[in-house]
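Student: Please help interpret what follows.
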Amino acid sequence: MILNKMTAWQRQTALFLAASLILIGVFWPTFDAMMAIWMRSGTFTHGFMIFPMSCFLIWERRRYFDALVPQVSLVSAVLFLGCSLLWLLAALIDVLVVQQFALVSMMILLVSTLFGWQVFYTFLFPLMYLYFMVPFGEFLVPRLMEFTAIFTVKMVQLSDIPVFQDGLMISLPTGEWQVVEACSGIRYLIALLALGTFYAYSQYTLLWKRLLFVILCFGVAVLANGLRAYGIVMIGHLSGMKYATGVDHLVYGWVFFGVLCLLLFWLGRYWQDPVEANPIPATNIRPSALMPTVFVLLVGLVGMPVLLSQLRQAPSSVDVTIAPIVAKAPWVESTSNPAWSPRFQGANQSFYYAFRQENQQVDVFLAYYYAQTQEAELINSKHRPYDATQWQRVSKQVQTVDLGNTQSLEVTETRLKSPLGQERVIWHWYVVGGYAVNQPLWAKMLELLAIFQGNSAQSGVLVVKADVLAGQTMEDASAALLVFMQSHFLRLMQSFIEVEPE
């Protein structure tokens, strides 16, 4: 019996190692993209530690191996194939985060496919912990920035100090502060969730205790970042803007956050549970046939990447002509330099226009994407409708624009302010296959639909902006954009005209 068990473990381990090498080799671009984010982003540097920490947790539970019998699972292999299909769909439209989630899911399902569900259930948490490798969570940044700004202002008001808030801008008698992305606390939040989840699993055996501690970590991270921002503002204010206005405020922040984390983990030890006894594995799981399981697994490992290479044709050299946008009275074309630098990298073509009505000028930017690749795509988290080095974002929200004739359009409105006090309002939206959409997800879905229809979606982004003139407010600039859009929306949309290759 022992010999048979060892033989089974050796056979399944050999299959697992071979499948793992194929997975790494075939899906290496996705692995590489994930590690590149770990290296360049301080928010996700912890990704390098997740796999070793998962292996450590498995090693800590190594005593359970004696009670387990490895067996393949066809059901798990089918789930693996489904994740591979999800990776394929995400790769076709370059949604990197979905590719990464699908890839980590395949890593996890590789265990249940080649070792069985008993092994999977026994090491469920160490396997699920691998999802922390995926660089995910930056969608929370705008909400965290808003919370940080509101919390800081409320705390300053409680300190009986005059304060004025304009979106993410905070003004005190001693100086002005802005809540930028680095102030959102996303680094603290994601790092503490990853570390706190590991700690909760190590210290507690009761599920409610583990969940409660993870929720507590979330709350502490958000609250601690608010207190950190308030402390930095107060240090700057009380020192006459001498301290906490440069690199030193980052140091203060990390020290404060580190002390809170240590205090949280120290207190958490008082409610730790005793070590759990060895689990009794289930014995009523029917083993699957080896060959069908391996076949389905190989289709997921190799078939989807091969299919991707067939569906994703190499970018062809085409001539694309954009129909010029002609002004409609009372608007006239302006020769004034817009002095405007939206950040949409990798566009095949881009154009600037300027239109004027009396003293109000509206500038238009159009970026056209024909053959999209990674880092040269319409939807990218690095894209900005403004130059962040020159302008500070005051607010960002979705607006529904009434175009008249029962037509409406959702746009993303961004309000900006420069260090010199200039103000600006920007609207932008996406155009895919002739449809105007505001949500990046819908834009990606339309691109995917075009691929399966055998078409190359005419994709692009349209951006319009108006500066706030002397004596005006941002609402006045927004109203000017509305007037311009009501007369020029159809002409903007018609500017997407593709010419067949010669």
Notes: Residues 332-493 form one domain. Confidence is low (pLDDT under 50) at residues 1-5, 498-502. The chain has 14 helices and eleven strands.
